[in-house]
Amino acid sequence: MLEFPQNFVWGAATSGPQSEGNFKKQHQNVFDYWYQQEPTAFYDGVGPDTTSNFFNDYKEDLLLMKKAGIKALRTSIQWSRLIDDFETASLNAEAVSFYNDVIDTMLANGIEPYINLFHFDMPVELQHKYGGFESKHVVDLYAAFARQCFKLFGDRVNNWFTFNEPKVILDGAYLYKFHYPLKVNGPLSVQVAYNINLASAKAILEFNKLYGSNKEKKIGIILNLTPAYPASESEADKKAANIAELWANKMFLDPAIKGKFPEELVVLLREAKVLWDATSLELDIIKNNTIDNLGVNYYHPMRVQSPDIAANSLQDWMPDIYFDDYEMPGRVMNVDKNWEIYPKSLYDIAINIRDNYENIDWFISENGMGVSNEERFIDETGIVQDDYRIDFMKNHLSELQKGISEGSHCQGYFTWTGIDCWSWKNAYRNRYGLIRNDIHTQVKTIKKSGYWFEKLSKRNGF
Ligand code: BGP
Fold this sequence. Notes:
This is 6-phospho-beta-glucosidase. This protein is of the alpha/beta class.
């Protein structure tokens, strides 16, 4: 039996925009808007209204999650739902009462709330008027929204996160066109990266003003860490992997934990003439408002080789002029997602945090397996026989446990996800849940992995 530390948290993760549905929302976020403009950009034409309807069904959904052994739920508050006027951060009464009741219902069911404040869901008005996180004014509006959340729910919520996967916002919205506003602008993505780091620090500043002296209250950020492994031991490949590591991981890890950007990255961006605009006052805010704990979303690593210089010298500045993907022969793939399955990265991440990031407390805030057409695995009892997902979790948890046994302070594992949810452009192409949701009938059924998770969480191991 592989055991985890006492009080290890067994949870699931989702987000407001992917689970709540869009009923009676005052404002749209960028995905609500983009879907309205271009439904065909989304898999099977399915948009953000088609969810498990958490906005109406949260009581039943939380009971189901409890039955699957989920003892903590990481979800998010939608800025576009909670706030009526973004400039003054005035509140929407219906949304306040919804989120209050969600939190109370979680606690009544023994499900600990872990609340995230931004999951790709920029209010579209702020995107159109100011360019979203391109603008430092929006940084301040976000901090005001964060403060409202802390004030409203901080009496009951002990664990907070400022952002989910800021790197994906850069990739999606500013480099590779899978998030609205679909821009391709390398230098702008650098400024957005800086502004999001600043926004996170400003939210932490607000949090500390309210709860700084309360040791029970913690705030962190959620990063999708993708260790970058070089294709070979050649100096050129190692250099490429080093830059990929700076760009993909350290650009957010370092300011969040150490309060400053990696010098190597700053030099590289300055030489390329794309360094962000920063003031010394802002850099002090980043320095003085670091996180209490870290959320790590882990799905797959990066395999990196030195770039094709000739091809890259023709294009405008983009971060990937420094590194190319490497399709390593023999790597194990999740073919439905086209993502490599490599559990050992979790051990590497654990040791990296232990040795290079102050051995800070951290969580796996997402890890899971997305599979297409899961109806093919439904047996005669109506249950999805998702042994592949159980194996995926076992293999990842084994590596994680090894890292913990060697002194890394991982405090919990949140699988992505509890109930199958809508996933941006991919909609329901891949399902990740421990609980199946039939999006036509809204019938929700615990999968084999959900029954397995229930035992895992009860025994604190497997
Ligand atoms: C992460 C996001 C989640 C979720 C997950 C699966 O990057 O934080 O919101 O969507 O990826 O994504 P997909 O369904 O596109 O495979």
